[in-house]
From TrEMBL:
Domain named THUMP-like: residues: 323-377
Protein name in UniProt: Methyltransferase
Keywords for the protein's UniProt record, in alphabetical order: Methyltransferase, Transferase
Pfam families named among the record's database cross-references: PG_1098_Fer, Thump_like
């Protein structure tokens, strides 16, 4: 793939100068260059826009961006950098390289990296960028995954996969067996070449189902960024036969991480009670783990209701993985029209928008109104 035209200084300057322009208008205006199409320019502008949010380390001269779908599928710099601190060894194999963001960060702790990618153009973009970034000791293989596994005779310290979660019609897939490659199908083959496999999965995957379907899972990472769960990461070890550890992380927050055995999550029993002085709202990574009862046991908190994942205590716990509010009960008739609140609705029949409409209150302000349910019935709490 030839990059010399798109990398000419005047073309690169045009891309930078128009990185804030309306792309629809730009596409209609056509390209000012005879040897670079406006579609190629738009692709680089979209790439720069994505990089500003997802991987700012690529905002430097000489970097080439791939089509939009590859940008969407790539990990963010934040999650990739986090994963880089989890693994190290002699040799890394990324079997689904894609745009290579994860591999770029993971490779920092490996002496040799091998990237396998069936999309020739995409692999050429990655190899070009890594040269610009001075990333060496890398082997680039333009092969189908099946062909590679058939021909390979090397051993690797770690094999990494990010299976495609869309079918040929671009529809999202959520079942393990529907992904490409199917980890269930190739699992045993992978362990001919390594003792450890790491698989990135959608945050919508069911953790209990993963544990039941995939043997050898030693760790399950739930990775959130600013309380939005971005991905699951499972570590599969060749001879591991115990309960996996669920590792809960909310990046770019001050909240503590949490490690808990999956078996403990299953066996924990909650304590129930009515609202006390403090209300505890677990972050979304904790909720994704299903550790609803464990949170009650571990922090000695009372759960409001079996289906209400809110907790209460007379004590303030500073290092709780979520939000802690000091609250008082409030009667619905005492909510004044026009007041501003941040609305939280948990196990309550009305959505936040419906609540705002019913009580004629506005969004915002520094206080919270929590509409929820305890074992005694519906309750409204106000932060103070």
């Amino acid at each position: 793939m030839e990059f010399s035209n798109i990398l000419r200084p005047e073309v690169q300057q045009f891309i930078k100068d128009n990185s804030r322009q309306d792309l629809t208008k730009l596409l209609l205006s056509g390209s000012p260059f005879s040897d670079v199409s406006i579609q190629e320019i738009a692709q680089q502008i979209k790439g720069r826009q994505a990089a500003e949010k997802k991987f700012p380390f690529l905002l430097q001269d000489g970097i080439i961006f791939p089509p939009q779908l590859n940008l969407e599928q790539a990990s963010s710099e934040t999650t990739a950098a986090f994963k880089a601190n989890l693994f190290s060894g002699e040799s890394l194999l990324d079997l689904t390289s894609g745009y290579g963001i994860d591999a770029y960060y993971l490779s920092a702790n490996f002496s040799q990296t091998t990237l396998v990618e069936q999309n020739k153009n995409l692999l050429e973009i990655v190899s070009h960028n890594w040269l610009i970034l001075n990333k060496i000791n890398t082997l680039y293989l333009n092969l189908d995954l099946g062909d590679f596994l058939e021909k390979n005779d090397q051993k690797f310290s770690l094999i990494y996969l990010d299976p495609a979660r869309r079918d040929t019609y671009n529809r999202k897939k959520f079942l393990l067996e529907d992904l490409s490659p199917d980890i269930l199908e190739i699992r045993n083959k992978l362990f001919e070449f390594t003792d450890k496999v790491v698989v990135k999965l959608s945050p919508l995957m069911d953790i209990s189902m993963l544990v039941s379907q995939v043997s050898g899972i030693s760790e399950i990472y739930i990775i959130a960024v600013k309380n939005e769960v971005k991905e699951l990461l499972i570590v599969i070890e060749k001879d591991f036969n115990q309960s996996p550890t669920v590792k809960i992380h909310n990046l770019e927050s001050n909240e503590p991480s949490l490690d808990v055995a999956f078996s403990t999550i299953q066996q924990s029993k909650p304590i129930f009670g009515e609202t006390s002085e403090y209300l505890y709202i677990p972050n979304n990574a904790v909720l994704k783990s299903g550790a609803f009862n464990f949170i009650s046991e571990y922090y000695n908190l009372e759960k409001l209701h079996p289906n209400t994942h809110l907790y209460t205590s007379t004590d303030f716990i500073e290092d709780f993985p979520g939000r802690v509010l000091k609250v008082v009960p409030v009667e619905a008739k005492k909510i004044e029209k026009g007041e501003r609140f941040n609305i939280i609705s948990k196990n309550y029949p009305l959505t936040p928008d419906e609540i705002k409409k019913k009580y004629k209150i506005k969004d915002g302000g520094n206080q919270y109104l929590i509409f929820t349910q305890s074992q005694k019935g519906k309750i409204i709490l106000k932060s103070i």
